[in-house]
Structures are given as structure tokens and as C-alpha cells.
Amino acid sequence: MNYSNTALKGLRIVDFSRVVAGPFSTMILGDMGAEVIKIERPGTGDDSRGWGPPFLGEVSSYFMGLNRNKKSVAIDLGTPEGASIARELVRSADVVVESFRPGVMKRLGLDYETLRLTNPSLIYCAISAFGQDGPYHERPGYDLMVSALGGLMSVTGPPQGEPVKVGVAVIDVCTGLHAALGVLSALHHRTVTGEGQRVDVSLLSTELAMLINTASEYLIGGSVAKPQGSAHANVVPYQAFPTEDGWVLLGSPNDKLFRVLAAALGRPEWGTDPRFITNGERVKHRDEIVAQISAITCTQTTAHWVELLSSTGAPVAPINRMDAVFEDPHVRHLDQVAEVDHPMFGKHKVVTSALRLSATPPIVGDAAPRLGEHTKQVLTELGITNDRIDELVDHCVVEFRPADEEFTLVD
Predict the structure, then answer these.
(1) What is the Cα–Cα distance from 350 to 347, expressed in whole angstroms?
(2) How many CB atoms sit inside 10 A of residue 220's CB?
(3) pLDDT (0 to 100) of residue 409
(4) Which pLDDT value is given to residue 403?
(5) Which of 145, 158, 243, 301 is buried most, with the most CB atoms less than 10 Å from its CB?
């Protein structure tokens, strides 16, 4: 991995997190050049290693998409020797990220108060489902459960339909983004003051922050939002419409754009119709305008409407599946898909960082590691001899799998 011209060159992160939120956060930081040492459980590692098919060799594609640019060190933190090695590793770290249930790291002697005694400038980021205290703090929680409790599922899906989750673990992803932002903010504070600090972020607190207008509509206006399908509760039209061969997404976030859309659809009179002249009126007469637009859009193909409306400046998009997404000319122009080379499994494609920095661009870097691939390297850097490492392997305290060693498919 080449760190020579990256924004976070020289930053060392010890990552005790797993599944999505924490690994997504540390992958962002790894893309920016931080050294990320991922601590995993011997034998099974991060739960998401087994979330397949599809698999690449022994590892799920799910895991591969969240853990590039990391070193894997497999340590049994439940053993005194394993926890001691982890504490020694943190002594030289800038950042710790963990996503255990509250209280677990304290039992292991890896909590912030313990680690700061030997590393007072440490930034310690704890990611949890519901926070470090409160009535639910000990509950296990995943994106799906939190999205239900926090209200996101109540506004997702078709009207009068069953509750629907978002197709990507969006709360996990946004929690990872908040965690990375918190770490970077704390690092800036440390640069100014020399002081480390603890950063706490939870899936539930992230979801509440994500609710934006849906939350403010209730808090300010007392309005309880309901699922709208692809439609918008406050903007009309702004949803999917049927076409001859599928669906097209049309939107008019302001009155000027609505007049552009009306003209493009051959109905310029809508722009002066009292029922449709302002967005507020269109919201009141939603069913009428949606029905009239649908009657027009279903007469032509999706491609026809995309081409026609794009030329007028009206917001429009096809509703692409994954195969169409990565064939789209603008997606290709973004050049956000790259190949990484795994020493055992060969080349595979990944979606790279969304960030663009003119002086210190993110790196494509290395493929996601095998479980325990870097155990020997990292422990040797701590001054542990090869003989001692072999003893630790024999006693199942640590695990080491060379990058090119034969594998067994994860169950």
C-alpha cells in the first residue's frame, strides 16, 4: 500500500469493529492513507466474512466491499494474553474504533479509561446500536432493528403496504460516516491541544439525525409522516411514473421546473392551472396531477423520457438495476470502480472512495485481507519473537493465515 501522498499518512488505527458501521468508517480512513489494523476473532473473524454467497475464495463479497486497505490480526481477546497484546498494540495507536456492546471492552481491559492511562492522546471511537447508557444500551441492535424503532421503516415503502427496509444498510453506512467525522474532529482538537478524547456514536442517534424534514414536520407541525412509495410528502410531482417499458423518475422541486416539465410533456397549460400553479396547490391536488402525468408517460419508453426531459433541464432519471448502473456513461466517467489484486484470489473490482482531494487523493490500495493475514507482521513489530508467536498460535491465542495459504470456504 502506498501512503506517500495521502491525507492521513502516518495515522495508525486499531479497529475492533465488525459487520458494517465500524468497518465502513475505518475503510474511509484507510482510503485516505491511515494504517488500519483490524482485530478479529480467530477461527471466524468478522461476522460478515460469512455473509454470502457470493464468495471470493473463502470470503464473502460483502466483507470484501467493506474492508480494503486493512491489515487483519486475529487475536482471542477473551484470553489474558490476547487482551494484553491488544493493549500493547494500542499504546502506539492514534485511534481506536470499536463496536462491541457497551461494557464488553471494559471487561476486557480495553475501555477508554484504561487505554488512556498509557496513551493519553488516544482518540477512542465507540460505535453502538443505542448508545453507551440509557434503557436500551445493552440490547443487541442491527441496522434493520434500529430502522424500525427509530421510525425510518414507518416512512419507507408503498402506502398501505407492509413495512419495508431500505435496500442498503443506510443507517450503518451513515453511522460509519458520523464515526469518521467524529474521529477527524477529535484529531483536529488533538492537533490544537494535544488532548485525546472519546467519541460516541450510535445507530439510533444517527437515524434520528437522518430523519431531517420527517422529524421536523412532527416536532414543529405535529404531522406524523406515512410511507409514500417513491413520492415525496412535500413536493409534487417528485416520484416514479410508469412508462411503456418500465418506470422513470420525474421531479419538480420548484414551480419554474414544473412549468418546464409541463411544457415538455405537451401540457404547458398546467403551469397556469390554479390547481397546479404552486407546489402547495400541487400537494393538495396530488392525485389529479399524478394521474395526468402517468397517462402521458406510459405512452413512451423510459429512454424516450430521459432523453427528452434531460434536454429541457427538467430533473429526470431512469431507475437502474446494478447492471445498468455500472454501464451508465456518467458512472463510468466518475472512474470509481477499480481493480485490486489479492495474492491468492486474483483481481477483483471494488467501488473506490467518493472523496476527491486535489493534493492528497484517496488510494485504491489493497484488497480486503485474509483472516489473520498480518498477525505475524504486526506482532513482530511489537517485539514478539517468532517462537513466542508460534506458541500463541499453538494455544489458539492468535491465528496467522499467510496470504497464499490454502483456504477452506466459510460456512
Answers:
(1) 10
(2) 9
(3) 46
(4) 79
(5) 243
DSSP letters for 341-393:
EETTTEEEEEE--S---SSSPPP--PPPPPTTTTHHHHHHHTT--HHHHHHHH
Calpha distance 182→221 (Å, rounded) = 31
The confidence score (pLDDT) of residue 411 equals: 44
Identify whether 54 is preceded by a cis peptide bond (ω within 30 of 0).
Answer: yes
Contacts of 390 (CB under 8 A, 6+ apart): none
Look up 387 and say whether it is catalytic.
Answer: no
β-partners of residue 30 are none
Q: CA-CA distance, 237 to 262, in Å (whole number)?
A: 11
Catalytic residue among 15, 172, 287, 335: 172
Residue 410, pLDDT score? 45
State the angle between helix axes of 203-210 and 212-221 in degrees (0 to 180), rounded to the nearest 10: 70
Contact 210, 200 (CB under 8 A): no
- Would you say the pTM of this structure is higher than 0.90? yes
How far apart (Å, rounded) are the C-alpha atoms in residues 134 and 142? 17
Instruction: Outline where 41-79 has alpha helix (H).
Output: 61-64
Other beta carbons within 10 Å of 208? 14
Instruction: Report the relative pairing of strands 123-128 and 95-98 from DSSP bridges.
Output: parallel
Q: What domains lie within the chain, and their CATH numbers?
A: 12-210+333-399 (3.40.50.10540), 238-325 (3.30.1540.10)
pLDDT averaged over every residue in the chain: 95
Name 401's Cβ contacts closer than 8 Å, sequence gap at least 6: 74, 370, 371, 372, 373, 375, 407
The arithmetic mean of pLDDT across residues 165-189, rounded, is 97
